[in-house]
Amino acid sequence: MLSVRNITEIFRSFGRGAARLSLFLCALVLVTACQSTPGGPIPYATQEMAPPDRPTAPTIGADYRITTGDKLAVTVYRVEDLSREYRVDMAGNLAMPLIGNVQVVGRTADDVRGEIARRLSERYLRNPDVTVAVTESTNNNVTVEGGVRRPGQFPLTGQTSLLQAVALAGGIDPENGNDRRVAIFRRVSGQRMAAAFDLRSIRSGTMEDPEIYRGDIVVVQSNSRRGLFQDILSALPLIALFRPF
């Protein structure tokens, strides 16, 4: 850390040259910024991030893979109690009468139709006539990676902040995560953008808790987990708060 005496002596050594003085002041600002940045040399967002591009609605074709939050219309011929719309829960299941939970995430509608028909035919109906159609696709997941307890994809069911998104993943891993180095990656104006946040500052009210949008990727710095986003998080330059990569 530079003392007042050190600064005075360096100042005198520059003399009265305006150009030399300007260079010195710029260097001093950069040194001070590096020493005062919490959590290391990454850019911290101090203003609201731009919202992402409007996502394109997924095409619901025969090869569409079901995800959490989707709504499926199940029709069992001549069985009205089973024939209705079902919402895929956060565990990836459809909860149906008689046969219980049916795991549907990652499967096509035809796969699910065959599974439901098979289970019904085992105990309840002979040659059941079943149809399954995806009537609503939310495609609204946020991905949380790095130093959290349960990294993965999570559905957004309403307005969600960064703190809430991290909570969906079980919170910061106390042995592996750094809550002072958390990045949001999103696509804005056709470019993939990134900004970093300090969760301690957000909790204390000195930094805004940004809104998370579907398609965002949240990465908490990890001491052990490596990957592309971890490398980018560590390499984000000091000179920008929010920039493309």
Throw out a few tags for this protein.
three-stranded antiparallel β-sheet; six-stranded mixed β-sheet; wza like fold; alpha+beta; Outer membrane lipoprotein wza fold like; 27% helix; 3 domains; 245 residues
Mean model confidence by pLDDT: 77
Q: Domains counted in the coordinates: how many?
A: 3
- SSE order in H/E notation? HHEEEEHEEEEHEEHEEHE
Measured by DSSP, the beta-strand proportion falls in 25-35%
Q: What's the CATH first level of the largest domain? A: Alpha Beta
Q: Which percent range fits the helix content?
A: 25-40%
Number of alpha- plus pi-helical segments: 6
Taking all Cα atoms into account, the compactness measure Rg is 26 Å
* The named CATH superfamily of the largest domain: Outer membrane lipoprotein wza domain like
Low-confidence stretches: 1-8, 18-39
Walk me through this protein's architecture.
The chain is an alpha+beta fold. The protein folds into three domains: 36 residues, no CATH class; 124 residues, Outer membrane lipoprotein wza domain like (Outer membrane lipoprotein wza fold like); 66 residues, wza like fold (2-Layer Sandwich). The chain has six helices and 13 strands. The chain has a six-stranded mixed β-sheet with strand order 7-6-12-9-10-13, with helices on both faces. The chain starts with a helix and ends with a strand. The N terminus is likely disordered.
